[in-house]
Amino acid sequence: MKGQSLLLTLILIGVLAVVGLQVYSLTGAHSLSSGSDSGDAESLRDFASQLKANQLYEKSAEVYDEYVKGANISDAEKANIDFNTGKMLLDQVGDSEEALARFLRVTHLYSDVDPEIKKEARKLS
Asked: What is the dihedral sign for C-alpha 82, 121, 106, 58?
């Protein structure tokens, strides 16, 4: 039992180290705001998705925010990402303040938003 606990602890430390290195590299010299190309933007989106899949919801939201700010995507896609990020923060983290900020961004800042997403965002805000 003690051996299994040690092994699980070592695996967890390894996973956290890998995630930490990825966060450092993506928020450091490779930041979207420093003028990177669309391949880097897609890498950032994929990384945000991986963070979410590993239940690192708040860090995932931060990376999605960076992606939305720097990627060359339509307002409709930005609204969709912000809505889904808000739902994730509300449902998984219970952070109603951060979720509300994203829902309000969907209803007030973006044009050409899917009417169903806008309706749901209004309901939740």
From this structure: negative
